[in-house]
Amino acid sequence: SDAFYGCTSLAYADFSTSLTDIGQRAFEGCTALKEIVLPDSVKNVGNEAFKECSAATKLKLSSGMTVVNNYTFKGCRSLPEIAIPASITQIGREAFYDCSAASMIRLHKDVVSVGDYAFYGRNSNSVIRWDECQGPDVVYLGKDALGAYGYLLAPINSAAYVYATTHSGIKFISTQVKLFVLRCYHIILKRPGAVDSEDNVDEAGMLSWCKGVVDGSQSGASLVSNFMNSQEFQKQENSNEEKVKRLYD
């Protein structure tokens, strides 16, 4: 605990692959630390361990962790992305509070508890992808756990959907909308892969279309029209018969 607390000039830390525990506040206030890359040997990371590591632009969590403790990465406001590995089922209070640069936050289906304000302070254009979030009878979401603003991609009837209905600043993208957009890529543009897969589909482009549908700048019909009028589609020089067939499909 407190091992490197407030070492404001520390820019790099190389963690041994035999390391299993990082104590409370161990790197809190290391405001020059650029990367937080935890080997999979790490099992436990204490409260506030990397709090206010405000210059960190890379975060890799250990697949040996099952819990992200309270305040662990609070104030890591330069992280562009947060990815929670499949081993983690619980995220503590304010664990990622004020991680305001993160445009993408990835949660997996086995996360069953997200504490109060865990992702509060994320920016309004950010996306939490929780594609397989379970229902409210399984998942606990604390007060403002997923933030007050931004996008949230999850199934209807999930705990995430219920959260979105009670937070006016959250824009909910249902997995049905995502699948509709993917069908446009695979059926209209003939991108290789199953119609419901993200194979050969750039994630940023897909999410941009999804956001348009949710924001109201795109209807289902106008989205299809945009795909049909795209240069990628026009270069295929499809017959009218083929165009109509793809619209039916």
Protein structure class: alpha/beta
H/E series? EEEEEEEEEEEEHEHHHHH
**Total beta strand runs:** 13
Mean pLDDT, all residues: 97
Beginning-to-end CA distance, first to last residue: 59 Å
The shape, in one word, is: elongated
Strand content: 5-15%
Oligomer: single chain
Largest sheet: 5 strands, parallel
- Output the radius of gyration: 21 Å
Low-confidence stretches: none
* Number of helical stretches of at least 4 residues: 6
Helical residue percent? 10-25%
Sheet with most strands: strand arrangement: 6-8-10-12-13
Give the SSE map.
Blueprint: E1 21-22, E2 35-37, E3 44-45, E4 58-60, E5 67-68, E6 81-83, E7 90-91, E8 104-106, E9 113-114, E10 127-129, E11 140-141, E12 150-154, H1 159-165, E13 170-174, H2 175-188, H3 203-215, H4 220-228, H5 231-234, H6 240-248
Parallel strand pairs: 1-3, 2-4, 5-7, 6-8, 7-9, 8-10, 9-11, 10-12, 12-13
Helix pairs in contact: 2-3, 2-4
Describe the overall structure.
The protein has 249 residues and is an alpha/beta fold. Helix content is 22%, strand content 15%. It has six helices and 13 strands. It has helices spanning 159-165, 175-188, 203-215, 220-228, 231-234, 240-248, and strands at 21-22, 35-37, 44-45, 58-60, 67-68, 81-83, 90-91, 104-106, 113-114, 127-129, 140-141, 150-154, 170-174. A five-stranded parallel β-sheet has the order 6-8-10-12-13, with helices on both faces. Strand 12 (150-154), helix 1 and strand 13 (170-174) form a beta-alpha-beta unit. Helix 2 packs across helix 3 (203-215) and helix 2 packs parallel to helix 4 (220-228). The chain is elongated and about 70 Å long. The termini are far apart. The mean pLDDT is 97.
